[in-house]
Each structure stands twice: as structure tokens, then as C-alpha cells.
What does this fold into?
Amino acid sequence: MGCWIFNESLSVVLLLVWLGLNLYLFIDTFHWYEKDDAYLYTRIMLGSTLAWARASATCLNFNCMLILLPVSRNLISFIRRTSCCRGSLRRQLDKNLTFHKIVAYGIAVNASKFSIFFWFVFQLLLHNLIVILNTTTQMLTTIAGITGVLITVAFILILTSSTEIIRRSFYEVFWYTHHLFVVFFVGLIIHGMGQLIRGQTPQSLLLHNVTYCKDHYSEWEKSAQCPLPLFSGNEPVAWKWVLGPMVVYICERIVRIWRFQQKVIITKVVTHSSGVLELHMKKRGFKMEPGQYIFLQCPSVSQLEWHPFTLTSAPEEEFFSVHIRVAGDWTGALFKACGAEGSVFQEPWKLPRLAVDGPFGAATTDVFNYRVSVCIAAGIGVTPFASILKSIWFKCCNPNTELMLEKVGALHDDEKMDVITGLRQKTFYGRPNWDTEFRQIAGNHPSSSIGVFFCGPKALSKILQKRCNLYSSADPRGVQFHYNKESF
It folds into this structure.
């Protein structure tokens, strides 16, 4: 339990840091707009809704700053390769998509609070329908109004198309609507240029005594201390929050475009049962590690769509390969383009052009960092371990290779050689009794740090994570199961 407590504690600490920063920014901004004299007359008209809206806007900008970083895969891969990123820190990087979703929820919450501000404004005008209609018309013709509508619509489409059922059943819908993030960020940057929220200018505050004048409207322009107050809008600040992450993400896209131009040669096409396509490819300068994945694009199928696939080849081989299961329109079209449906040999020049982005690091690349590793897969999730098992075999055949890893997949004690992997320990097929297996592994390795790597459905992932937590010793010197889940 000790290892699990530390890993979970680190995740909780990072989450609390994110929540704490949101809370601090909200309170600090709220207090500023509630107390600053420059917004006194605005507060008289709108009450605390001004402070609520601006505080929510600040948190919105903060989360928009973070949202692009977890999907900057080259940046994450670079951090994974650094010497300071080890163990628990690397496992936190594997939760990048989870953090991306959490930040998205943060944006949704703060955008909702910000929108409530306008609802209250309209409530203040309910006594006069004509004023409401005129205000609405004016709002929709201003920079703030137009961009506000665009931002809201774009984000709603992105959020609703990101649900599990849409991503699994209609991936193309998810993919294309997610690119509305360009509209969202451009609208966010322009939105503040409308300078809808206005405060009293510093020069006006020096001449206009708000403490006295706010209670003596009749003396405005008559008394020396109550000249007519002057107001101006705030300078836009959203761009300052998102500029850095946007530059990083643009660099990511530039790298993808550069990789798109690099020639990829398909050397072999193999059709397997159950609609699985195996592609062998070559690309100049391509270097990989076991367990990594790539993004694949086929311009003849779609000019925009890139899909992630785990590499099934070993770094020691002269090619790199992927196994693709037909599970949608894009994979089905690729299946046809490669001539996998027919029994006639496809001429190499007739094969479609492919573009490859990557490779990128994944949780399974840490298999070699443990003395004992347990690899568990379900369905097509077996693909990342094909690369790992092949690489182990190549390393074992090379007497000059130093390998920290001593034992893999010890779920079935059998001295016979496995017919697929060639390893002494036979690959176990089917679902075992997890309590029995984990208890046995813990008993055989009482003082070891054991890496458990899984690729497959969420339901089984939850079961395995619970078993890792249950059978990890509370004593740090005892057996510790480190759970690693593959995710794209």
C-alpha cells in the first residue's frame, strides 16, 4: 500500500495545487474588482456580478493557458527522456489526457460563471423590454458580443463531441469538432479588445473624489471635487495567458508538418483474421523504443485526420510496424486502400501514401526499468507488448546487452518455450484469477518493485489497479506494485 499511497498522494497534491491556484486567482481578482475605486460606479449599477464575472474570466484564462500543454506530445516525450523525470513523475505524465479533461471541465465551470454575469445584467433591465432588445442588438454587433457567441458555441461543440460514446462510435466527429479550438482561441484573444468592462481612469480618480461624489450626484460638474468622471476599458490580457502555450503547440504542428513531408515506404502488407491489418514501413532517421506509438495519416483517405497506433515492431528490426483493426470509417477506408480486401497481390506503387508523426513515449516504455514486470493486455491492446517481447528476445540474444529486467509476465509457470514470443515463460491467454496471480507474484518477489503494465478496456483497468493497491505492502521495504496504464 505504501507505493500506492505515494503515487496517489502525488496525484492528489498536483490536483490540489491546480485547485488552489484557481481559488487564489478567483479570490484575488474578486477582491480587486470589489474594492478598487475605479469600478465603484460600475458596482453601483451591477453589484457583485462584475467581480464574479472578472474573477471567473481570470480563472478561464488560467485554464486556457494549461489546456494545450497536456496534448503537446513532443514536449511530454522530451520531458520523459530527461534524467530528472523518473518513477512517479513519469507516471504523472502518463495521465496527461486525464489532466487535459480536468482542465476542460475547469474552463466549462468558469465560462458558465462568466456567462451568468450577462444574465444578471439582463435581469436588471427587465423593467423595459425595449432597452433589453436594444442592449441585446448592440451586444451582438460589438467585438465582445460576436466573439463571446463564437467562443461559447465552439466550446459547447468541442465539449459535447468529446464524450465517450462520440469518441468511440463517431471518431471523425470528435476529431473535426476538436479543431474548433482554433476558433475558440482566436475568439478568446479578440474578445477582450471590445473593452466591454470600463473603469474610471487614473486621471479622473485624481480629480473626482468618489468617496464624496458617490453620495452627491447633484454636485457633479458643479463642485470642484466632483467633475464628470471619465471611463475607459481595460486592455486585453487573455493573449498574455495563452501566448506561451500557443507557441509551444504551433511548434508541435510545425514538427508534424515537417514529418508529413518525410517519405514513408510501405514494405509489407499483411491481412490477419478479425479485420486486422499489419503494415511494415520504413522512414529515414526513424528511431523508436519498445512500447512507443505513432500517429498515422493517409492523405488519400483524409487530409486532416491523424490516428494513434502502437508500434508492434522492435527497435532492433529494420522496419517499424503497426497492427490496425477495422473499427470505423477511416480504418475501413485504409483497409481498402491497401488492397487488404482482395486476394490479389497489390503492386507497391498502388499502395497509398502514408505520413507518420512520432514516435511518442508511453507508459509501457518503462517496462525495462523494473526487475520484474507484469504485462496484461486485452483484445487489440496486446500490440504494445508485441514490441516489448520482441525487443526482449533480441536483447537476450545479444550477450553484450545489459538488461535490468529479469522476469516478464510470470502469470503462468511453464518451462516450455512460448511458440509466439520464443520466451521461456509462456504467454498466458484468457482471464486468470487476479487475486491468485497477484498473491503468487507478491509471494515470489517479497521485496521487489514490480511494474504492472496494462492496455485494454477501462473496466479491467479498474480491477487491476485495485489489485495493485491491495497487494502492495504498507512497508516501503516490501513488495510494491506500480500500475501503468496505456492511454492515447
Notes: The mean pLDDT is 82. The longest helix spans residues 2-35.
